[in-house]
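OP here, attaching both records as promised.
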Amino acid sequence: MTLASYPFVIPQHLHASLPAEVRSHQREAVRLLVQNRQTGHVTHDTFAHLSNYLKKGDVLILNKSRTIPAVLYTTDHIEVRLARKCSTDIWEVLSSDQSEIGDTLHFTNNVRATVIDKSKKTPLISIRFSIKGDEFYNFLYINGTPIHYEYLQDHWPLQAFQTVYSSVPGSIEMPSAGRALTWRMLAALQNKGIKIGFVSLHSGLSYFEDDRWPDPIFQPEPFSVPVETVKLIQTAKNERSNVIAVGTTVVRALESAVDTNHNLQATAGETTLHIKSNSALQVVDGLLTGFHEPEASHLDMLSAFIDKNHLLAAYEEAIRQEYLWHEFGDVNLLLPMEN
């Protein structure tokens, strides 16, 4: 059985089109579906009660990557979505135009970009900008906008696509699993004895348009796991406490930092790790994540945490209970629990 064999359909009204703070005046005002990894049992709750499911000594690992305004428009209105930074002046991008190698794209302020390559594995092209470094990022933050998919009701500002704790710019799309976390919630978790650690993974595009989704194998993402986080996790493991990843990006970063001897190491680099149902998780015990589309590779990763039948049953329950999908939607917690 594969997830693709049992597709589910997300009703149109369950695509979250507004940020929670617009819907309900509070960022943390989202719902929480908690699922026991062993039994598949589902509990419905609110995200404000997250601490009820965590124990003193548990470790919550957050992705501190910050979203950049990844959409630019040429002077003749071609949309260019940044997908991956290759060097200081070269980016892989998704273009709304059928550009060919050698073509020049013209942007405002006399900025240009030359098409230098076309991927054979993806619809992405590689372009070299006429500016780089700080000059490029100044241009990007003045002229770029965040990626908006069609289910969003309005064009929200870049700040709507940030987690409160993000600090390192680089993600093409928001690592959104922790969006509902507020400083008040994080402080309350720490007061309960729950430890907080950080990694960084700059996420790429999640969708190529026209019913095309990225394959993680062909989408390297830069990540880093600092030594402080490694020590925090090692202590938790020694004390038999749970390590909970906030987001699939955190899982990908941590599991990519495991060496051939199955030890977590402080690491920085790029990862093409594709976690699937037969992947043995070395570091992460639990996962806090959003609700994903049936075609997304994220569901492959979730099936490494829980039996696919249990996972699909929970998604069907979420649809019946009208949970909201996507970056402004509700949250799913997969956790090992005592019976």
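Record two, same layout:
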Amino acid sequence: MKLKKIAAAALAAVLALSMAGCAGDDAKQTASSGTADKQKFTLEYPAHMQELGYTDKIELEKAPERIVCTTTYPVMTLYDMDVEMVAVPQTSVLDYPADLEAQQLPSLSMESFNAESIVELEPDLVIMAAASKQDYGDTLSSLGIPVYYMATNSQTYSIYDVVREQSQALVDAFTTDNASAAKAKEVMAQFDDLDKRVEEMQKICAGKSVLMLLAGGPTSMYLQTEKGTLGCMAAMCGLESVYQNDQAASMIPLDMEKALEYDPDVVLITGMGTSEDVETLMKGVYELNPDYWNSIPAIKNGNVIYLPGNYVSTAGINIIQNIEDLADILEDYYAQK
């Protein structure tokens, strides 16, 4: 594999340089040690990652300047902290700000992705999903490139809590002066403000039940649990899922027969594209089997809210805006009832 050859060559070069510069480093150590301590950069893992065994900190002599993100989760938090990134992943989950000048790399799941493109950018920190550790992270680490891993789901934490802890770890690491401290405060204040907003919604939605579906087509219907992105958001707003289980799955194939036993107050349906795209898709699904779908009272009575693809998966701190939007939608919906 070409990437492994690069790894071997890079390691050899590092050894040669370290041997050549050893005496010079010793001579400079005493004079520079005080400054180095102030410049050191430490990025720790949050609790949900430490429970998975990620306990080693990322420790660098200074804050990284060539950051490559292969997952969307850290991008907007780093952007809000004015941290420059040299590359971010292509995505349809969010629209990057116009002034984000980072190169957009193919997603790791895309056939066009080439791991060598990361190496060629000469990053001093790569942030990627933990699921990619074995396929890509270990190889990058063998090249001496620091790799920090992020969860994109959790069996024990809600996705909102995952994002909150991730954001806290990032702002703690990148707070280096008064200006960055102020930005860090602004970033985390968004979570505090959202907490107050959902407290209001929990009063409005108290006692209301919900069925949450992910629509892929007539033969591709999934039920979202409270472990899923939409499920987490709905639960935060005070809705109680009609599907109660103790499984860790974020979604399961819809059991058409079992679904007839549910009697939700409202049905939330998401899928790819806009909310209008999802509604159009579902109209076609209803037409194929009207007797079945009309057997679910909420659907028969039109108590359905169609949601865009933002609710299929999240993109880090953008989950805050998604939840605020859902709260507004639910508030308007119940105001009309």
